[in-house]
Amino acid sequence: MPKIKVLCRNPDDYLRETKNDIHKVPRSSSAQHPFKEQREYVRTLNAVKLERTFAKPFLGALDGHRDGVNVLCKHPTSLALLLSGACDGEIICWNLPRQTSTAKVQAHEGFVHGMAAHKSGQYFFSCGNDKTIKQWSIDAQGIIGGEPVNTLLGKCIYTSLDHHWKDDIFVTSGSRVDVWDERRSEPLRSFSWGVESVHHVKFNPVETYLLGAAAHDRSILLYDMRGSAPLRKVILKLRTNAISWNPMEAFTFTSANEDGNLYTFDMRNLSMPLNMHIDHTAAVMDVDYSPTGREFVSGGFDKMIRIFPVDKGHSREVYHTKRMQRVGSVRWSRDSKYIISASDEMNIRMWKAVAWEKLGKLAPREKAAMNYSEALKKRYGAFPAIRRIQRHRHVPKHVFNALKQQHETQEASKRREERKRAHSRQGSVPYVSVKKKQMVGEVE
Amino acid sequence: MEQLMRGLAAEADDEEIPSDDEDVAQDVEDRPHARLLDAISSMDGNKRLKHTLRTIHGQNVSEFGFKTQKVDAQTLMSEMMGSLHKSSSHSELKKQLKSVYTTTEVVDTPAPKHIKEKIQRSVGYEKTVKELSKWDPVVTANRKAEQMKFPLEQPTQKLINTHITFRPITALEKEIQAELAKIKPENRIPKGKLFTPAEEEEMKAMSLEEARERRAELMKMRAIMYTKASKLRWQNKIKSKRYRRGKKKEKLKQMEKELEELAVTDPEALMDRMNEVERKRLEERGRLRHMGGGKFARQAKVFSKYDNEKRQQIQDMLSKHKELVKKHRQLPSSSESEDEAEIPNVTAATTVHSKNVWMQPTVSSLASLSVSQNTSAVEVRDDEDEEEEDEEEAKERKFLASFDVDETDDEDDDEDDDEDDGEDVEGDDVEKSERSEEIAAVSAPPLQQVEAQSVQEDETQKTVEIESKKSGKKGRKQRGSTHEEEKRVAEENESKKMETNSQKAGKKSKKQRVSTVVDSTAPPEDEEVETSQSQENDADEFEEVQTKKKKKKSKKQKDTTAQETAQSGQEKHEITAPVISDQEKPELGTTKEAAKPKKNRKRGKKSKNSSSATETAISTEEKALMAVVKGLQTTTNENENPNTNTSKAKKGKTNKKTTDTNTKTDKIPETPADTLMTIAEAFDDDDVVAEFVEEKRRVEEEEGEKDKDLFVPGWGSWAGAGIVPSNKLRKRFIKKAQPQARTDNKIGHVIISEKKNTAVEKHMLDKIPYPYKTLDQMQTTLSKPIGRDFTSETQFRKNIKPKTVVNRIGQVIQPIDDRALLHGGQKRKAVDIELNTKKPTETSAKRKKKGKH
Q1: What per-residue string of b and e applies to B111-121 under the rule 16 or more CB within 10 Å gives b?
Q2: For the residues A32-47, what does the mean pLDDT come to?
Q3: Which residues on A lie below 8 Å from B415 (Cβ)?
Q4: A439: part of which helix (H) or strand (E)?
Q5: Where are the domains positioned within chain A?
Q6: What band does B314 get if pLDDT is binned at 50, 70 and 90?
Q7: What is the pLDDT of residues B421-463, one digit of tens each?
């Protein structure tokens, strides 16, 4: 049989290799790793469960006050020290890691309304119901000098006090907002707008000349310390109890409102809040930003402490204990790791900012594992089985019921509005944002 | 202004109010009087404009303190001042008036306090907003940032010279120190500096920019070199004939030119060249390349101008080549030579693959070969039976067709066999032999039988490999003697048929086949016959055995069935080799039997059954037979092309025969409709509807709620040992299942399953989560896993980067600062300054220009 030669061409023989022949080798081919998504999903599920298992945020309580704690003040230089003022006029300096008090001072007659420390951490100011502003010296160990260094007698009750972030200037609120130089007995400047009484005032940490204040006429006021006139006023439907400036964004602040919501504003556009943070079931008394500017903590009359991401409408975390009563003041520690709350039942409590976080130094592998689980949670967080576990929090019955009621009310009003809209002329019942509904107006 | 003037005029007109130039004292005296007047006027009830009086005692009375009273008649300024124009004095006053007339602007009244404050506030606010907007880029960047590290001001990491504080203590350290001391001072890093003096020198010598330029230039050069080299390499590899021809022509031309030059300038060199060419020619001759287009020939053509001998040589070469070529072309393709050529080919094929079981030529292939060889002579031969001429022709055509394929596909057959998914080698081999038997039975039954016999004999003693080889050889050997053998076989067959009392038609058909086979077998060449005489005897013996067997078979069939069925059965057996082999099974009792595929056995059984069936069954049997043939056809189609051809021919034959038998036995011919009918009849008993109803009931039962037995002994009665609870009580505790509300309840002909896997539901998303917009997006993201196990370490680290990082525990994070606004540009600048200490020099600039050109 003759051998038949067949035309047979292999392109490899006559085609040269080009750079296009170098293929990218995918590392995560599904052939190599079957069920990779499924495996990661299960890992997420486990991570979430572990998160819940390790979520033990309560670190300890500081007891020593003989009345409800009204004010908390972070020490500007030491993370270990904390100042607190009670309703009986006593000021205590605490050592947080040891959970002991370093000094106790009977500072005022009646309430201590406000406290603020100088940036050097060597002295602090306090104001109270006795119409005085007192300057106290404090050393690095947290020992407060027995007698005030300086006492200013005012004409009205000072409801709040805050210190400038850089200069030797502090501000008080009362029947008006006074800006004081530390070395003078008369205020440098006084701001008043109408006949309101201002109960809260705060310095902007970034643009330090800016002031935010909350007044009894349900308004939030903005001042420029350098000018003679206030800047603007926003009136909400209910009173604002406290405000806190975002330390990473010069123009953003959040206000804690009597209606149980928090409103984040951009001070350049006050016609409507940027965001409305819903979850508290009663008046929110205090709010404080994390030094990272990503989250803030709030506490209120519903005996809950809640942590909100700045850009989210609902809280990511809720802290409470059986014994904790109405929360008067909350602070986020300057290293962004802890939260301190003061409540009516004379206790100060320390919490972890991230409930499941391991405290202390982490080994690199440990850190990577944590980060991995966080990344997984972020990716698969929307899946219902994971979300359910992640979102689950136990809340006291009163809060649970109140939340339920709140939800029902909201639904009802929504329904009502829908019906109204359905039965009236088109356009006569306009859609109004919920955020907008909370506003009374902006006053120039 | 005019109004104002009018007002002034009115005031001036008013009698009751004293003018400025009146005495003030009198004014004071007048006040009680005025009051009195007022009181009086107010008594009458008529409203009267009050006199406003100044209460301040002073020399200078403001003109704005006055108010207008009701003016009866308006006095125009022009009326008042009319006389002024006429007079030539009061030029100063005139000037002032003029300016008053020209400026028409009226000063606004000062805004009220609350408005003033509002304006102040809004101005302040706008200013602040403008000021704050400088933070916008920073804030947006931070919000978008994949990762933010806190505190924002990271401590700078500077290179610190460690040797400054280091003191050697141990021996090793001291030794190292001593070694280090030997280093030249220029290679040592001095205190407080980052680089050694040598390094600094280098850095001075060339600025960064210059170095970059230099590097770019070098890279460019290298790229050019590479491209040039690759181009040349590529050109060398060009296979285009046209291109090469062109190149060669160029070369030749070049050579011609050179030779012409040499002839003029250097005849010796020319001679050398000639010698060289001569040498080449010799080489060429040695290689026996006589084509005119060779390298030598072409060169010789060039030299033929100068050398007559050369010309002659070329001529010779060409003639030689022609001669050679002529001879090649004269080779005729006679039938003889073909035959001669073919046989060695086959043998070669067999020898080549003799060791490989798969590559051995099958009996079938050999048989078909023999057939095909014989068919070449068919045309020459005269037909014996005139009746079957047409049939013959058709067969011939088919055989010829098969012949064509035969030769070429001989090898392919073997290969195809290889591809068969046989259970084991032996089994496959047996199949092959069977197939060959079958074909041989059709085309040349006597020959096939002989072959088969030989195979069977060998089987008992030798391995499959050897036996197949042998059979092949035998087949080849016997080819010569086929003619005589076949004749004898035909006679014997006839006699056998007579014995079995087969009907005329059957006999005829048998005869036909035999005759055809005889026809088809070519008359062997005399020499061949002579040479194969010795083998003939052996073959005769085999033949006898075979015929005996056949007789036995036919007897058996006769016993069991009617004559007709026997006839048909016989036919079938003859046609389908497997059946034969199956029936031969008990006689053979070889190891091969076990390895026979089940398919064949089944077929055999079928045939047995069919043989015992009634007349109606005969038709079905024939159908089955057809099916078997068809099946075989398909299998053979897959395996061997020539075989299929023969089987096709066979099929036609069998069909014809069966119809023949049918006509003889008055049987109704079959049509497709009939087969359909039978299928319908076959399913006549099954009630499909009832079956479905049953199935639905079963599904309902399975998916539905079941009765629950809640009975617990002792409940509702006395308990204890030996107490048997009554059935009545038992029944009471059985909770009956409620009838289900199934969706298919009202649809009779449908089963809708109520089973639903709810276990997965809780893991399923009901909508696409936020950052994703489409399912595809989400799936692609999820398909890229995060974990270490699935990606590289670097990718893993990138994947798990957290958004917010707090670098150190217990560090205060300060609020963002004005420095954040300056970041970016400044840092980069600093680096530039550090590295680009030297500005690009003129030389570098020149180089730049050159590079551009």
Answers
A1: eeeeeebeeeb
A2: 92
A3: none
A4: strand A439-443
A5: 35-55+360-390, 58-359
A6: confident
A7: 444 444 444 444 444 444 444 444 444 444 444 444 444 444 4
The C-alpha atoms of residue A152 and residue A411 are separated, in whole angstroms, by 52
Distance CA B75, CA B60 (A): 26
- Amino acid at site B491: E
The answer to whether A1 contacts B346, with C-beta atoms less than 8 Å apart, is yes
Could you tell me which residue, B770 or B310, shows the higher pLDDT?
B770
Q: In this predicted model, what pLDDT tens digit does every residue of B660-715 receive, in sequence order?
A: 444 444 444 455 555 666 666 666 677 888 889 899 989 988 888 888 888 887 77
3-state secondary structure of B835: helix
DSSP H helical ranges for B479-562: 482-499, 504-520, 526-531, 533-560
Quote the CA–CA distance of B528 and B170 in Å, as a whole number.
106
Q: Give the separation between CA B707 and CA B621, rounded to whole angstroms.
A: 54
The mean pLDDT value for B804-829 works out to 75
Nearest CA-CA partner of A289 in A273, A269, A310, A272: A310
H or E element that contains B116: helix B113-132
Nearest to A383 among B124, B763, B814 (CB): B763
- Name the phi and psi angles at B396, rounded to 5: -55, -50
pLDDT over 90 (residue A282): yes
B15: which strand partners? Answer: none
> How close A231 gets to chain B, by Cα (Å)?
5
Residue B561 token pair: 């069935």
Question: Nearest 5°: phi and psi at B709?
Answer: -95, 105
Residue A3, min C-alpha distance to chain B (Å): 10
What is the residue whose two structure tokens read 């092949």? B472
CA B444/CA B436 separation, integer angstroms: 11
Tell me, what's the pLDDT at B27? Answer: 57
DSSP state of B163: G
Comparing CA positions, the residue from A168, A165, A162 lying closest to residue A208 is A165
Tokens at B300, concatenated: 């010789």
Q: What is the pLDDT of residue A213?
A: 95
Interface test with A, best of B117, B121, B792 (most A CBs within 10 A): B121
**A224, amino acid identity:** D
* Cβ pair B419, B552 in contact under 8 A: no
**Where are the alpha helices (H) located in B769-810, listed in sequence order?**
775-783, 793-799
How far is the C-alpha of B563 from the C-alpha of B560, rounded, in Å? 9
Contacts of A247 in chain B (CB under 8 A): 813-816
d(CA A366, CA B158): 29
**Interchain contact, A374 vs B148, CB within 8 Å:** no
Other beta carbons within 10 angstroms of residue B832's beta carbon come to 11
- d(Cα B848, Cα B463) in Å, to the nearest integer? 86
* pLDDT at site B587: 42
Distance CA A379, CA A40 (A): 10
C-alpha–C-alpha distance, residues A217 and A196, integer Å: 6
Interface touch A250/B139, C-beta < 8 Å: yes
- What is residue B156's predicted lDDT score, i.e. its pLDDT? 65
Q: What is the pLDDT of residue B189?
A: 79
Whole-complex ipTM: 0.90
Which residues are within 8 A (CB) of B551 and not within 5 positions of it... i.e. 6 or more apart? B496, B499, B500
Beta-carbon separation of A372 and B814 below 8 A:
no
DSSP assignment, residue A340? E
Q: Cis peptide before B185, with omega less than 30 degrees from 0?
A: no
Tokens 């809340």 -> residue = A395
Q: Which residue has the higher pLDDT, B625 or A115?
A: A115
Angle CA(B177)–CA(B180)–CA(B181) in degrees, nearest 5? 85
Q: CB–CB of B613/B565 below 8 Å?
A: yes
Beta pairing partners, A332: A339
- CATH topology for A58-359 is Methylamine Dehydrogenase; Chain H (2.130.10)
d(CA A147, CA A151): 10
